[in-house]
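Protein 1 of 2
SEQ + STRUCT:
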Amino acid sequence: MGPPDYIGVKDASIHGVGGVIVGQGKACLPTVFRMEWPDWVKQEVLKTNAGQKGTLTNSDLEMAGLLLLWLVMEE
């Protein structure tokens, strides 16, 4: 097993998620992606941050961002 063929980095916040994918072992056109979260997602995170019974945390947004990164890599 060697280094990965592709490298991707991402970051997520209450505003949305974005990242970049580049090739390392294989040629890959550098790809940048960005997506704004729907309003209902933002509201749930705001509730959680305010100590109310929100259902989403920043960790949930980061995990969703990682899934999105993998989906973009597959494309």
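Protein 2 of 2
SEQ + STRUCT:
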Amino acid sequence: MGKAAILIAKAIDYVNAGTVEFIVDRNKNFYFLEVNTRLQVEHPITEAITGFDIVELQIKIAMGASLHSLGLVQDRIPRNGHAIECRLYAEDATTDQFLPSTGTILEWIPAPLPNVRYDSGIDSGSRVSIYYDPILCKIVAHGSDRSHAISLLQKSLRDTLVLGSVTTNQRFLLQVLSHPIFIQGDYLTNFLDLHMPTEFRSQAEKFSEENVLNLCIATFLSDWYVRDKQRPLWKHVRSRFTNMPDRSFDHVTLEHKDGVYKIEYQTVKDGDKSNIGNFIVRVLGSEIPVQLDLIKEFQETPNFIRTTFLFTIDRIKRTARAYIDCADQRFYVFCSGIGAILLKKKSRFKTTTSAVEESGLNGIYKAYMAGKVVKIAVQPGDLVKSGDVLLIMESMKMETKINSSKDGVVGEIYVKEGAVVQEGEPLLMIRD
């Protein structure tokens, strides 16, 4: 393929860096696809194993330098080890079409690892909009061999912090890197269809019970610490104080898209005095000793609270980072080695269902992502059958069809072609 690429470049008198793409079949026959007269998104792979800065070389060649003057002789180009690149995307890998996601990245902290490179265009506070490609970062791991590169990339993805209202493919990438077929290297372009269909990805995205337990406890600790700081006059009085022994456990209820978790806890008065807090915690059928060991960072503003802390669960120490949205009590929590989760603290008081939520029961179709309405395929009064296309939306260069889930009659249409809508915004109504 290398020789064929050079012949193609010579045939069109191409000078400078470029990329020639081929496709290879199971028998290692290869077929020409296209020439890109530029660098491709995968160029860090070449830079990792050769040690060359291709962008620098590209600029020097454009200024008149030759390959020989730069010391670029084909048989002297080194190839050291193995490199793998993955693309961290703002997308939902549990959907059939890997739908793009928009929102705000509250915290972005790439894991500082040797021989791992991050090419990103985001930072803490970045807004991911509908107008650009959903790629957030290219992560490149360079190891002594393929197995080493895979393990480096796995650790990077486990320890890289992405907190916020944006859904990413971070856990999906870990699923791929951990799949035995991928590790063996015996796969083709139909890898996902054969080994990781939508149903499998949806289930695999869910945290294990042990990881949910760790994340819920980390969330409880961040909430307890904030509440403890906000009641300075009552620090020595247990919250929900009562002299009734069966009421000695307080609780916090956390809501997640996969379930509701009740955290019951009791402060241990005779615990380790060097800790900030000592507790017995009941969650998911387990009763566990928990310690809040150390607050490494605490920042409080009218809109959010950010904290980083060390804690111990049943003698196992962990580090967690929490970002609390004060307006609606959303907790964006990250535990090293586990990942990030979004949990909402449930009010102790009963709330009523909003009019918008109730209207969803009456056939209102809402945007399940932010985007632009590029086509409305129906008009009020039209008869539609289940599966008919109602409208088409575009977000991050991807078109998505909104299909009817039932037979019915088109009622009100709330948007116009060309309108930009937010996630959850009503689009149209289908009546029975």
